[in-house]
Amino acid sequence: MEAWQRNLVVLWIGTLLTSASYSMVVPFLPLFLLKIGVHSHTELWSGALYSAAFLAGAIAAPYWGSVGDRFGQKPMIIRAGIALFITYGLTAFVQNPYELLGLRILQGLLSGYIPGSIALIGSNTPEDKVGYALSMISAASSGGGIVGPLLGGTIARLAGNRVAFGSAAILVLISALLAIFWVKEAQIRRATTRPSVVRAIGDALHNRQLVTALLLNMVVSFSIMTIEPVLTLYVTQLDPSTQNASFIAGLVFSLAGIASVLFAPIWGKWADKVGFPKVMIVGLVGGAVWTLMQIPFHSVIAFAAIRFIYGMFFCAVYPAINGLIVRSTSQSFRGRAFGLNQTANQIGNTLGPLVGGAIADVTSIHGVFWVTGALLASVTCTAITLVRKPGMLPNVNETHHTAQ
């Protein structure tokens, strides 16, 4: 097994466990709020908890990306894994929403296992295998989205949410240990300047293709995150049985992840042949259509089936955007590029839950579905326009080296 293949296998497992640790607990934050005594404005509190970590991550990610370009992505992966182990462990002991909010902010400031893995894979994989490798990492993340909610929902039902947080901490510790002992990073040309967020942003602004990919990531993230904080609450409305709420919500969350695991590698191989822009557009079209298709169905079974089809298409989007970033940057800049990509993602993730929670509070959860579908449709039209403009997005096998 070649070095890049071994890294892919190890980081696939690490990403799976890290994603599982996240999805074991974060989708159930609204229910955990009820457990610790928050019974008013639950939707707004839920949106705030989601957004706090994302906002902190948006601030810290470019710095960690710059550090990674100078000292390597492996140390960044290990650092993030250990930090998540500590914060998840402490979350098991919170007594009020303010303590929970503080730990969510700390998670955002110190996290970055999966972005670091993406940057390392993107810089240590042969160019003609990048699409496949990035899709495999995306599939691992989605696989965690399958295992995590089922495991977290089951643990929460049997032993409580606090035990679920402790279990998540153990999983992410294993991810860090895997990186410590088995990941080997290639000796590529490193950045020689001191880590600087301002310089990283300045260099990125001179790369039009990179800026385009970052903006697409931010708007897509904003669009889908308008609905994520209230999705668990919606599932509990479809099945009023409070005893099974966590388990049923976990099962529904898992179906989109199952679709991603099955179809993401297929999209990745296709992207290596036809280019990332085309695959991204197909995923966006499917995401918009099947988000709106969730509105008419009011049973758990029908809603779950629609979520599966939605995941089948939308799993193509983020790997395609990551592939565009790889194609538009040099190896020595990719840590900063993916740090900025995480910032763009986190900005969207910060604003989306706040907007979605506010819409649900003022209107209804169905209103959030309409807004999310309309936003994804708008992003799709924008992406089609960008593809038709020369130089806005990299073509098949084109690698851009403006940002050094």
Question: Any overview of this molecule?
Answer:
This protein has helices spanning 3-25, 29-35, 42-71, 73-91, 97-110, 113-124, 130-158, 161-182, 197-205, 208-225, 228-238, 245-274, 276-292, 300-314, 317-327, 334-362, 365-388. It is globular, with a radius of gyration of 20 Å. It is mostly helical.
Descriptive keywords:
404 residues; mainly alpha; globular
- Relative strand content: under 5%
**Main β-sheet, in a few words?**
none
Low-confidence stretches: 400-404
N-to-C series of helices and strands? HHHHHHHHHHHHHHHHH
Number of helices: 17
Distance between the termini: 31 Å
Shape from CA axes? globular
Overall structural class, as computed from helix and strand content, comes to mainly alpha
Helix content: over 70%
Radius of gyration: 20 Å
Number of strand segments: 0
Rounded mean pLDDT is 87
